[in-house]
Amino acid sequence: MRSAFAQTPYAGPLFDAHLHYNDEACVHDAPSPGCPHPLTDVLARMQRNGVRAVLANSRPNAGTLALAGAHEQTRAAGVTVVPFVRLYRNRADYSGWFADGTIAEMVQTELARGTPAGAYRGLGEFHLYDSANANGPVAKQLMALAEQKDLAILAHVDDVAIDLLMANTPSKGQIDLPPGRPKADPPPRVAATHAAAERGGDGMRLIWAHTGISGASIERVDELFTRYPRLMGELSYRPGLTCDGGQLCPEWRALLLKYPERFMIGSDTWVNQRWLYYDELMQGYRAWLGGLPADVARRIAWNNGAQLFGFNQNAPATR
Question: What is the pLDDT confidence band of residue 13, given thresholds at 50, 70 and 90?
Fold first, then answer.
């Protein structure tokens, strides 16, 4: 029998932890036909769905910069923009970024420039269609850079690549220092990120886009979450997540209850159709979040993202 909680959708604020404002949605210096989803449209969709913050990453980065620069509009909509540097200037970059030195240069330029909403807070989303490319020279460089600068990573990869990417960070994906290493004199980079985590949950985190869109087993996801305290899961497009009535499948409900501080939701507006169905996507999340204990639902919907990026975890709903 279904819990009574499942009958009442979650009504609190949402953090959309996987949002793209790509050039298909709007080329900002183009006439109207080149911008089917202007800022007024996308912000209205966020506002009416109680989305209070977005992790913005766009191809090219102009889309994210447009959101970050729309101070009056985002303030009126009640939306905080968390900007990430996307590694793609165009679709050709998807398949070779991990070995392309010009991508590393672009990332450094963007980080130095920042955004109208402040510093970039992460890198990605990036894709690895072959997990071995996690050991490409630029992939290795950017993973180390992310930990050095306390940046989050948004990665669309398989479970094998999670191990490889974490191996390319100074901490190897750990928050605490490796066993046996004296805590009084840790390596500078590890000490910096450990201190950042203790300040309030910021610092490098690897956000696993879709928590394994290729369908990694529950057991494998559990194994990786146990192994890597810095791993978080974003749940858009995750196969097997929901069952009858749009509620969580039992094994996924158990996993979210085991790691309530490690999951987030996202829209993944990678094509314009996802903007057209933005309301339905958020309503779907609210439906299954309502089937969880209230404190767990709030964590996954809002608090985990708010804590990670250091802003108000007590934000009220706007719907």
Answer: very high
